[in-house]
Amino acid sequence: MFQVTFLGTSASAPSYYRGLSAQIIQHNEHRFLIDCGEGTQRQILRSGLGFKRLNRILITHGHLDHILGLGGLISTLTRWETMDEIVIQGSARALERIHDLLFRVVFRGVRPPVDIVLQPIREGVIFENKDFTVRTFPVNHRGAEAYGFLFEEKARRPFLVEKAEALGVPPGPQRGELVRGNPITLPDGRTIQPDDVLGPEMRGTRYAHVGDAGTTADLEPYLREVDALTIEATYLESEAEMARQFGHLTARQAALLARQANVGHLLLTHISRRYRERDVIEEARQAFPATSVVRDFDTFQIRRGECVRLQEGE
């Protein structure tokens, strides 16, 4: 299960109700900040999530509305939070700008009290533990060397309690051994194999995040059958030519992508001040009904086959 909290949902410049791009993705104790537009640290405080364990930052691309908040946030983290290091992952082009912002402005002439690791990424896995992976994929956006992120739980075999009870496997450590794939021996001498109590393998939850994008056909293979997709919808179809010129998507284009990729639920962000929210969602739902236009401080819980709004933002 992944939990997504939207901190900034505006396009290019903030509006009264929407801050600039930033989202926090949570999986158990792990937290990832995706993008860090101007004002992000205040949005984190307002959300109630706080700064603890927020030491891994993923950057979709280096445009200023996605990175300018790093100066203030990193300054705060290095002063007030106990961390061994802060890892910022993004394209080489994005990290060049971030390096200048942090080391030529924020920490000019001084050594940061925490190790700040600027880690360039390419397509592939950039994070993995026993439960899930984070994979990157290329995104076409105005020559910005942009990337999307796919969060994917590892496949697992469910433990069948009824079968275990029928075989006399008591609750406790022995059941844990079977889940880990190890056979056990019961007090009466019988050996129980994992296959005796585990069901067929089931895929885990899959969540994808795309920042700004100018085309969709190249994205479909990476997004197929994700349980939820976050992507921009900066323009309406009435201004599709302008969207093309500036390397952005219309709400209809995003919705058609979700339909073609058989996405579970579509979460639209990067909303321009020029449009009313109801017009954006109306256009998208004509092509893909399972669409939400997200607001600052919206929180969604994403499970396999399910996307539920836990908290409604402003």
Q: Can you describe this structure?
A:
- The protein has 314 residues and is α/β, with parallel strands linked by helices.
- It has two domains: 2-156 and 201-311, Ribonuclease Z/Hydroxyacylglutathione hydrolase-like (Metallo-beta-lactamase, Chain A, 4-Layer Sandwich), CATH 3.60.15.10; 161-196, no CATH class.
- Helix content is 25%, strand content 27%.
- It has helices at residues 40-47, 70-80, 92-106, 161-166, 173-179, 220-223, 240-246, 251-260, 277-287; strands at residues 2-8, 22-27, 30-34, 56-58, 85-90, 115-120, 124-128, 132-139, 146-153, 184-185, 191-192, 206-209, 228-232, 266-269, 291-293, 299-303, 306-311.
- The protein has an eight-stranded mixed β-sheet. Strands 7-8-9-12-13-14-15 form a seven-stranded mixed β-sheet, covered by helices on one side. It has a two-stranded antiparallel sheet with strand order 10-11.
- The radius of gyration is 22 Å and the shape is globular.
- The two termini are 24 Å apart.
